[in-house]
Specification:
Layout lengths: L1 H17 L11 H19 L10 H28 L5 H20 L6 H16 L1 H13 L10 H18 L5 H22 L20 H26 L4 H7 L5 H9 L1 H21 L3 H10 L21 H5 L2 H21 L4 H4 L1 H4 L7 H9 L19 H18 L6 H17 L10 H22 L12
Helix pairs in contact: 2-3, 2-4, 3-6, 4-5, 5-6, 5-7, 5-9, 6-7, 7-8, 8-9, 11-12, 12-13, 12-19, 12-21, 15-18, 19-20, 19-21, 20-21
Bound molecules: fe (ii) ion (2 copies).
One fe (ii) ion binds next to loops.
Length: 490
């Protein structure tokens, strides 16, 4: 009996842990909640009102309308929950986008049913959602959009329904993984070809002729023009994805990789004006990437986040030790710990300004303040104490917030370990390196910096191991190979 109770307790604990979001959810304002609710009501009305137009109207028709209305309203709510579960930091703007696309599709089914193929109505929005919000949200959206047909007279036949479900699911699944615009273009060619072939096989050319010689146009039911129209609408969607990215703050994989391009003007500026910071950025990028891979986080996100995390140092590069290159340290010249602490905090504030000016998405911008969290600027705090200045410890802490996601927390840990690992003696053992890493990570954890990141003890263990393996790689690179005059084979 005791065993069963312990097992049940363990299961309950595991279930509760699985419900903890990996990132802190963003708060949705009351006005946004009201807008989202109104859009859901509108979707439910559009999806069900045709049922009230039957004459004579009897009680069973009213009941059937009420059932459809409630069904669509509940499924809209489930869709919002699924999107929040997949993207805990989803903004209200993005939820409004998902629901507006659903509203547009339900309206299009009523207005354009005779002109537009259902494939062209449902697949392109699924592509936008999968790119911006992920595959699971897109699949949930597709299931609601394919199952609810406002006008039963326009409901599609079972074979076309099957083709629609398969094509939309393929787009949803691949759309969430695609990493470049070129792959998106390939998708917009192959999906219409696939739909054309499957329509040919499943529906046959008798019922849906491939060419209508008299009236070749975009009329629903013509197999060739349906697929051609689908390809055109998908190409236009891809063309407009950057617009959705900037308007709704979507962060697609392609956008992430574009931002990670080291030829971007802001990154080029960093490499030219603050070469030390640029080198530091690349090194912690390597540490953070390995650790993120170990815990199964978002590698593309952290790679790009690492590149921009210290961009604010551009406001005064020579005030940071990595860029001084033996020249005079301005902090020594001013000899004012309070002013020095202000300069350090300014690298966060200025970084946020640079990010805003260069329209860097919020998920990347979050790395700027969160990699410093509310860490103490220990060196200048002790200097102030030595000078017997009346100082408050909080004046020597970064303004925060502390890391709100696993990725920003990993970057903070990598940022802390990078300098120590770089300075470590080449002959240091793995044990010594691991001790240094553990010391830095534990001090940040004890300081409460990881409290909001949801990193578990096991994940912190894996992060330490990942940093160690990167350090081993660095050490291997630094080992000088013996050279000899006769060494002609390398
Ligand atoms: Fe920093
Ligand atoms: Fe840094």
């Amino acid at each position: 009996m005791q065993n069963i109770t312990t097992t049940l307790k363990k299961l309950f604990y595991l279930w509760r842990r699985s419900q903890v979001p990996t990132k802190q959810p963003t708060k949705v304002s009351k006005i946004d909640n009201l807008i989202i609710f109104l859009v859901c009501i509108l979707i439910s009305i559009i999806s069900s009102y045709e049922k009230l137009l039957i004459t004579p109207l009897n009680i069973s028709d009213i009941f059937s309308w009420l059932l459809t209305f409630t069904e669509v309203l509940i499924s809209s709510g489930i869709l919002i929950l699924v999107s929040k579960k997949e993207n805990p930091t989803i903004s209200s703007r993005q939820i409004i986008l998902i629901m507006t696309l659903l509203l547009a599709v339900q309206t299009a089914k009523l207005v354009l049913a005779s002109t537009f193929s259902p494939l062209s109505m449902i697949i392109p929005p699924a592509l936008i959602i999968s790119q911006g919000m992920g595959s699971i949200t897109a699949l949930a959206w597709v299931s609601i959009a394919t199952l609810n047909w406002p006008d039963p007279a326009n409901a599609i036949n079972i074979n076309l329904f099957f083709i629609l479900i398969v094509c939309a699911s393929v787009v949803s699944l691949l759309g969430g993984r695609i990493r470049s615009r070129a792959q998106l273009l390939q998708l917009s060619i192959f999906v219409p070809i696939g739909s054309l072939l499957s329509q040919w096989i499943l529906i046959g050319q008798d019922k849906m002729p491939p060419f209508d010689k008299q009236d070749f146009g975009f009329s629903n039911g013509n197999m060739f023009s349906d697929s051609f129209l689908l390809a055109i609408v998908m190409l236009f969607t891809i063309l407009f994805i950057p617009f959705f990215e900037s308007t709704f703050g979507l962060l697609t994989k392609a956008r992430l990789l574009e931002l990670a391009d080291k030829e971007k003007p802001l990154i080029r500026k960093l490499s030219l004006e603050a070469p030390g910071t640029f080198e530091h950025t690349l090194l912690i990028g390597g540490l953070a990437e390995e650790a993120t891979r170990m815990i199964g986080g978002d590698i593309d996100l952290i790679k790009t986040g690492a590149l921009y995390h210290d961009i604010g140092k551009l406001h005064a590069p020579n005030w940071f030790i990595e860029n001084q290159d033996g020249s005079k340290n301005p902090h020594d010249e001013i000899d004012d710990p309070i002013r020095s602490a202000e300069v350090l905090q300014a690298h966060v504030d200025e970084g946020l300004k640079y990010a805003r000016k260069n329209r860097i998405p919020k998920s990347i911008t979050n790395f700027i303040p969160e990699h410093q969290g509310t860490l103490k600027m220990g060196y200048f705090f002790h200097k102030a104490k030595e000078k017997n200045l009346k100082v408050n410890e909080n004046d020597f802490r970064y303004k925060g917030p502390i890391p709100q996601s696993k990725e920003t927390a990993i970057l903070m840990l990598a940022d802390g370990c990078e300098a120590a690992l770089r300075a470590m003696n080449i002959s240091a053992s793995d044990k010594e390196a691991l001790e240094t890493i553990s010391e830095i990570i534990n001090s940040r954890r004890n300081d409460g910096q990881l409290d909001d990141s949801n990193l578990s003890k096991g994940e912190i263990f894996l992060i330490k191991r990942a940093f160690l393996s990167v350090w081993k790689r660095i050490r291997h690179r630094r080992i000088q190979y013996p050279s000899s005059k006769n060494n002609t084979f390398s």
